[in-house]
Amino acid sequence: MNTAPEVHLMQVTPRLEIRNLVRHFSGRAVVDDVSLSIQAGQVTCLLGPSGCGKSTTLRIIAGVEMQDSGEIYVDGTLICDTHFRVPPERREIGLMFQDFALFPHLSVGDNVAFGLKGSKEAKRARVEELLARVDLLRFIDGFPHQLSGGEQQRVALARSLAPKPRIMLMDEPFSGLDNRLRDGIRDETLSLLKEEDTAVLLVTHEPEEAMRMADEIALMRGGKIVQQGAPYNVYTRPVDHAAVAFFSDTN
Ligand code: ADP
Ligand code: MG
Question: What is the distance between the alpha carbons of residues 17 and 130, in angstroms, rounded to a whole number?
Answer without folding.
Answer: 28
